[in-house]
Structure to design on (239 residues):
């Protein structure tokens, strides 16, 4: 199923429905998963878990320690010891690594490039998936990433596979970097994104793939609010 238009339900109709407890949002880089997931969680008063930020944090820690992204043992050992915290502070969602706020540091092109191979390491995934599943246990959750609906939370009540055209995704990521004061070339961002798509979708361990029971939502021609409304509608079912 492909969605690409505004949700039509009124607020009154939404309130008359029952919200599903676990919402899994998967998709490629730049599709808007984190931005949308945060807003959906805020509107529903759910716990938001940014799994991509967790892998980026491990990648950042590895780069700082000079660990090769191909050194699986070193990366696995690092993941077992690094302390990752996800916190809502007012309207800001912050990521901490061993007590340091790394919310901006994990969004640089260098960390983005390292995050994909790091996230493919079985030992890294083993540690982080266990953490993610513990966070989701017993909570109403919105979780986004690459394999939430297929591997992390395969029994999620509502699964969304969020996509957008490559050019649009690249422009979104470029603008995001620009707003954070990070200089980046749009063509380079586009090339790196396409390369990451290829790595993420072809890796042997937990590749990026749409779950069979996930709903495909194309955000190419939608604004953020329209995507959020569409997901909230999909996350509700008739009583």
């Amino acid at each position: 199923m492909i969605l690409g238009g505004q949700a039509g339900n009124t607020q009154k109709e939404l309130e008359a429905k029952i919200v599903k407890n676990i919402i899994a949002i998967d998709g490629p880089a730049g599709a808007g998963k984190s931005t949308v997931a945060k807003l959906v969680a805020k509107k529903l008063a759910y716990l938001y878990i940014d799994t991509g930020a967790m892998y980026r944090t491990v990648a950042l820690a590895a780069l700082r320690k000079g660990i090769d992204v191909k050194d699986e043992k070193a990366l696995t050992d690092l993941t077992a010891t690094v302390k990752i915290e996800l916190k809502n502070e007012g309207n800001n969602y912050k990521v901490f690594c061993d007590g340091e706020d790394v919310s901006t540091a994990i969004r640089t092109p260098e960390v983005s490039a390292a995050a994909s191979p790091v996230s493919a390491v079985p030992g890294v995934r083993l540690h982080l998936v266990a953490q993610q599943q513990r966070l989701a246990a017993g909570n109403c959750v919105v979780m986004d990433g690459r394999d939430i609906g297929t591997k992390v939370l395969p029994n999620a009540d509502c699964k969304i596979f969020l996509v957008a055209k490559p050019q649009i995704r690249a422009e979104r990521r470029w603008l995001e970097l620009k707003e954070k004061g990070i200089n980046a070339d749009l063509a380079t961002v586009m090339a790196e994104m396409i390369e990451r798509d290829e790595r993420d979708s072809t890796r042997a361990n937990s590749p990026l793939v749409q779950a069979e029971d996930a709903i495909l939502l194309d955000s190419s021609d939608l604004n953020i609010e329209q995507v959020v409304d569409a997901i909230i509608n999909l996350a509700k079912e008739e009583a």
